[in-house]
Amino acid sequence: MHKYLLKAIFLIFLFSTHAVAETLREIEIKGNQRISEETIIMLGEIKKNSDYNQNDLNGILKRLFNTNFFNDIEIQLDKGKLLISLSENPIIEDIEITGIKKKEFTKTLLEEINLKNRMSFTQDQLLEDINLIKNILKTSGYYFSKVNSSIIENKELNSIRLKINVDLGEKAKIKKISFIGDKKIKDKKLLEVIASEEHKFWKFISNRVYLNQSTIELDKRLLENYYKNLGYHKVKILNSFSEFSDEGYFKLVFNIDSGDQYFFNKFILNLPEDYNRSDFKKIEKIFSKLKEETYSLDNLNLILDEIDKIASGRLYDFIDAEVKEEIVEKNKINFTFNIIDSEKFYVEKINLLGNFQTIEEVIRNKLIVDEGDPLNNLLFTKSIDNIKSLRIFKNVKTQIKDGSDKNLKIVDIIVEEQPTGEISLAAGVGTTGTTVGGGINEKNFLGKGINLDTNLEVSADSVKGKFVYSKPNFAYTDNTLFTSVNATTSDFLSDFGYKINETGFSIGTKFEQYENLFFSPEISLSLEDLKTNSTASKQLRKQEGSYEDFYFNYGLNYDLRDSSYRPTSGSLVSFYQELPIVSGNNEISNNLIYTKYKNLNRSKDMIGKASIYLKTVNSLNDSDVRISKRNQVPYRRLRGFQKGKIGPVDNTDYIGGNYVATLNLSTNIPGILNTVENIDFSYFIDVANVWGVDYSSSINDSNSIRSSTGIGLNWTTPVGPLSFSLSQPITKKSSDKTESFRFNIGTTF
Q1: In angstroms, rounded to a whole number, what is the distance separating the alpha carbons of residues 385 and 387?
Q2: Is 682 within 8 Å of 711 (Cβ atoms)?
Q3: Alpha carbon separation from 404 to 330, 343, 347, 494, 622 (Å, rounded)
Q4: Which of 181, 372, 586, 643 has the most C-beta neighbours closer than 10 Å?
């Protein structure tokens, strides 16, 4: 029975849908104002002399509604004539976003929403765009924003003017950041890793204290990388969430599952048969060094960087690296690096997009891969990293498309620019006096990647001003050109017997001579007016006068640190020499600094540091070394003694020496005052000497080695960063002025 009933219903449906089909012979359209009949027929995919049933008419109706051009449509087919009655959605004459002062922000919102000028307006699309704006505002920290709209209609033209009103409200502040789960690392250290910061009243200029979803996602990546560099290979940031308090603050919580700590076990390097293994010998040296060391993501990247360098050397144009890992013995990992030939593609064209302020030249100068070159994946990735290193772009994205031939590719590089100017003011007070200052810095002047930096510093005994101009890739040489102008007035009459007024100019360049070795030659011109007091010795008083100095200077910098900011391993060697071309005294000066960093425990939170500092100055003729050119022990390299109050003494003036040597050993002390945020303790030993007086053999300090030991503290306080040291001299001379306690506190705002 049911079987026959279903069959009957199907036949009735079939008859109803096909029996009423008519052949369309005529089309009539009513109600259209802007949109032509031809366009409507095309959009509806309507064809004369074709058969149409009700289902076909419903398809036309659906296609026309999907265009968003119409708010009402009626369709009727009668005796071969199709009648379409419709009313058009109004067109948007103008869209205005109010309530936001920053034009760049408003511009971004207008670009992101779907409604545009000269488009058809729909209420549904407006609601979607309002929600989109709210979400964008949340990513910038405006969780309490309100968005509404108003419409001004022009019924005669069937158009509207759309105004979107934004009330930003207060930014959502982060009151507390905490970490839960199997985190293994103390909160104090994790707070240093992430970009977000807890809101404090002295951080009123920082955007990091506001809840920002983009920053939170960055925080999760930073935490993950940090744990992986400590050996926690399987770390997971399970989730992050925020809790809103009654006080109007948010609590940001990260849930961490660190897992077990892993260690490197075995490394295998597989090469294609036609590759020369000796080209990869440095990689195999790294393998032997890392065996049984704590797993580290940075060390894996070090290996990949070496592969990059091989590719950069153009030894192998189409090279790629495949990394495989195998966990053995529970917490040990074997790594296999398969070096393979990548597909042979060439760069047909490179398009740069999004650089509205920055000229193309600045970006293209950072590209290792150029148009016409092989599209090497490793080199291309390195090029993008070079662009990011400019620090003038918020984001850099890439898109590779097919070119005019199967072996050609078109590369789109999309950059997102960001503000590059910075104004800073600073103030500080310490045992050495009060200092105030400020400066202006612009990293992308005129969109040319030019860096302009000017600053002024005023203290109790000096006024210093400096302006620096630097231009990367000057004259397409891959060299940085820099020039500076400086002026200094220093009054050291009471302690050192002299006062100077000095102005100077320098011009030079900087480039990478060899891998990690940077060379910085420059020429400098300075004008100095030197005065001495009445109690100064005869030798000092005869130096009084004006001097003109024209020097050739150069620096060598060899940097093998794992990071320029708070390094944990590696070394840095710097050498600087000043050679007179034309000078009143013809002094030659040499400066050498060697610093070594080393992890002292498995958790990598105890970092040892050893530093050697050597400086010499000698006259190339029979004249004495000018008092203003003589050397003092740098302020931070000999704690326990007053600044400049050691070494040779002439009458009562501390005149410094021709030679200075220091040795500094220190290590931080983890685990002290963990409940107090942003505080670091350290233990140090300082050894130093300053000696050599060319104009008087009676003044000799060559055997008077000074040394001290003590503890130091660095603490970010509510009023700014504070540092102090408590030290005890071990060896000293009777004329030396000691200082057991030293502190400095200041802020930048």
Answers
A1: 5
A2: yes
A3: 51, 17, 11, 77, 74
A4: 643
CB 208 within 8 A of CB 196: yes
Residue 13's identity, in one-letter code, is: F
Contact 696, 658 (CB under 8 A): no
| Alpha-carbon span 366 to 348, nearest angstrom | 18
State the burial class of residue 322 (Cβ atoms within 10 Å of its Cβ: 0-12, 13-18, 19+).
exposed
| pLDDT tens per residue, range 101-147 | 877 788 888 888 888 888 888 888 899 999 999 888 877 778 778 89
For helices 54-66 and 2-18, what crossing angle results, to 10°? 60
CATH 2.40.160.50 positions along the chain are 513-748
- Lookup: tokens for 575: 């050498």
In the numeric block, the tokens 């400096």 are attached to 466
* Contact criterion met (CB below 8 Å) for 240 and 309: no
Would you identify the CATH topology of the domain 20-88?
Ubiquitin-like (UB roll) (3.10.20)
Query: Between β-strands 570-582 and 81-88, what pairing exists: parallel, antiparallel or unpaired?
Result: unpaired
**661: which strand partners?**
614, 689
Instruction: Select the CATH number that applies to the domain covering 263-341 from these four: 3.10.20.310, 3.40.190.10, 3.40.50.620, 1.10.10.10.
Output: 3.10.20.310
Q: Which CATH code for domain 95-167? A: 3.10.20.310
| Helix (H/G/I), strand (E/B), else coil: 204 | coil
Q: How far is CA 169 from CA 18, 99, 215, 430, in A?
A: 60, 10, 20, 40
Q: Is 215 exposed, middle or buried (0-12, 13-18, 19+ CB in 10 A)?
A: buried
Tokens matching residue 406: 């199967």
Cα dihedral value 597, 600, 604, 607, nearest 10: -40
> pLDDT digit string (tens) for 204-214?
556 667 777 77
Q: Is pLDDT of 188 > 90?
A: no
Cα gap 266→55, rounded to integer Å? 68
Distances (CA, A) of 488 to 232, 373, 436: 51, 51, 15
CATH superfamily name and code, 173-257: membrane protein fhac (3.10.20.310)
> Which residues belong to CATH 3.10.20.310 in the chain?
20-88, 95-167, 173-257, 263-341, 346-417
Contact assessment for residue 641 and residue 739, using Cβ atoms and an 8 Å cutoff:
yes
Closest by CA to 46, choosing from 36, 55, 56, 32, is 56
Q: Which of 3.20.20.70, 3.20.20.330, 2.40.160.50, 3.40.309.10 would CATH assign to domain 513-748?
A: 2.40.160.50
With 0-12 / 13-18 / 19 or more C-beta atoms within 10 angstroms meaning exposed / middle / buried, residue 237 is buried
- Domain 346-417 in CATH 3.40.1390.30? The answer is no
Return the closest-CA partner of residue 733 out of 694, 696, 698, 703. Answer: 703
Q: What is the pLDDT of residues 413-458, one digit of tens each?
A: 998 887 777 776 666 555 566 677 778 888 888 888 888 989 888 8
Per-residue b/e over 163-190, b at no fewer than 16 CB within 10 Å? ebebebeebbbbbebebeeebbbebbeb
Instruction: Band the pLDDT of 10: cuts 50, 70, 90.
Output: very low
DSSP per-residue string spanning 306-320: HHHHHHHTTS-SSEE
Find residue 607's DSSP bridge partners: 599
Closest alpha carbon to 495 in 660, 735, 693: 735
What DSSP letter does each residue of 322-371 carry, written as one string? EEEEEEETTTEEEEEEEEEEPP--EEEEEEEES-SSS-HHHHHTT-SS-T
pLDDT band at 387 (very low <50, low <70, confident <90, very high): confident
Tokens for 388, please give them: 């990011």
DSSP string, 596-657: EEEE-STTS--EEEEEEEEEEEEESSSSPPPGGGSB---GGGSTEE-TT-SS-EETTEE--B
What pLDDT is attached to residue 357? 84
